[in-house]
From TrEMBL:
<comment type="similarity">
    <text>Belongs to the glycosyltransferase 31 family. Beta3-Gal-T subfamily.</text>
</comment>
<protein>
    <recommendedName>
        <fullName>C1GALT1-specific chaperone 1</fullName>
    </recommendedName>
</protein>
<feature type="transmembrane region" description="Helical">
    <location>
        <begin position="24"/>
        <end position="44"/>
    </location>
</feature>
<dbReference type="GO" id="GO:0016263">
    <property type="term" value="F:glycoprotein-N-acetylgalactosamine 3-beta-galactosyltransferase activity"/>
</dbReference>
<dbReference type="GO" id="GO:0006493">
    <property type="term" value="P:protein O-linked glycosylation"/>
</dbReference>
<keyword id="KW-0812">Transmembrane</keyword>
<keyword id="KW-1133">Transmembrane helix</keyword>
<dbReference type="InterPro" id="IPR026050">
    <property type="entry name" value="C1GALT1/C1GALT1_chp1"/>
</dbReference>
<dbReference type="GO" id="GO:0016020">
    <property type="term" value="C:membrane"/>
</dbReference>
<keyword id="KW-0735">Signal-anchor</keyword>
<keyword id="KW-0472">Membrane</keyword>
<feature type="region of interest" description="Disordered">
    <location>
        <begin position="52"/>
        <end position="72"/>
    </location>
</feature>
């Protein structure tokens, strides 16, 4: 106002006043640029766009029904059970030693090949020493190693040691699926436009999905080893992003009634919730009979689960299962 008044009076502003006006103008410009940058970051999303030409038809993946199984001959079923073999990639650290030991002594014995990938060497347990602390880099290295040492196995299962897994149910889910097709299965969550499989409840990948993923690892622009954003994405989202660029999409594993097969909670927590929410039908409302994983379990709970799933029997009771998944050769599993 003072400058405008002086101009009206025919006075020329002093150098100090010109300097103040110039500083004010510069501040306005810099402020505008700063606001623009903030707005760009505000609209930036770490997820990738979903191109219009992409179409996903298999979001809900269910196992074969009993009726479908009955249509298969004994020879077909026998051949299928021999073909469905799983390489288990189990990500551990020395801090998770108790769970590591529990996993080694329980469900991992049912994998056709189980390999532990550790952040550093351990004198107590055998593992592939990755000498790497970053979880995403470790996961990438583990997937590449598994692919190179698969020895003909066509399905890959990635898990943390806190997740109890019923491998036979996993095999049943993918029994008639073709591993030369890109499957990426588990408990699906959504973040913006990105659908991803939740890590703690286990991740299933077909041979083709892993093959495409490893090729994508070489593309630093779309699948960087180190993220470029201001914040760090979780490894499960980084994995999903790389897979999506590879044309592989997340599929939610469900049973014939639509119940989830990959649980991100433990049995005790799920039952406790069901007792509160569905007291008249606790078990039916809780979990699927063909559940594949339960996560967030203590090492002692995993031992109890092993007893309940594989050892406890009602004498004389026959479930009349159509097929049998034989244990790995020379395995000492239950």
């Amino acid at each position: 106002m003072e400058i405008a008044y002086q101009l009206q009076q025919g006075r020329v502003p002093s150098d100090n006043m010109l300097s103040e006006g110039s500083s004010f103008f510069k501040g306005m410009v810099l402020g505008g640029i700063f606001c623009l940058v903030l707005s760009l970051f505000g609209t930036f999303s770490p997820t990738i766009p979903h191109p219009a030409e992409e179409h996903h038809d298999h979001h809900h993946l269910k196992p074969h029904s009993k009726e479908d199984m009955q249509k298969l001959s004994k020879t077909q079923m026998s051949d299928l059970t021999k073909l469905v073999r799983v390489y288990c990639v189990i990500m551990v650290t020395p801090k998770s030693l108790l769970h590591w030991v529990a996993t080694n002594n329980t469900w991992s014995k049912h994998c056709d090949k189980s390999v532990f990938y550790s952040s550093e060497s351990s004198k107590v347990m055998e593992a592939v020493d990755q000498q790497e602390k970053d979880e995403w880099i470790r996961l990438r290295k583990a997937i590449v190693h598994a692919y190179e040492h698969a020895d003909g196995l066509r399905w890959f299962y990635i898990a943390r040691p806190t997740t109890f897994t019923i491998i036979e149910n996993l095999k049943y889910l993918v029994l008639v699926k073709d591993p030369s097709q890109p499957f990426y299965i588990g408990h699906v969550e959504k973040s913006g436009e990105l659908e991803y499989v939740e890590y703690s409840s286990g991740i299933v990948l077909s041979y083709e999905a892993v093959k495409r993923l490893i090729t994508m690892f070489d593309d630093e622009d779309r699948c960087p080893e180190q993220g470029y954003s201001l914040w760090k994405l979780s490894e499960e989202k980084q994995l999903a992003t790389c897979l999506k660029f590879s044309g592989v999409f997340a599929e939610n594993g469900e049973d014939g009634h639509g119940k989830g097969l990959f649980n991100k909670k433990g049995v005790n927590e799920l039952i406790s919730e069901s007792i509160t929410q569905n007291p008249d039908d606790v078990v039916e409302a809780c979990c699927s009979d063909m559940a594949i994983t339960y996560s967030g379990m203590s090492h002692s709970q995993m031992q109890v689960m092993m007893y309940g799933v594989y050892r406890l029997r009602a004498y004389g009771h026959n479930f009349h299962d159509s097929l049998m998944f034989l244990p790995p050769k020379n395995s000492d599993n239950d």
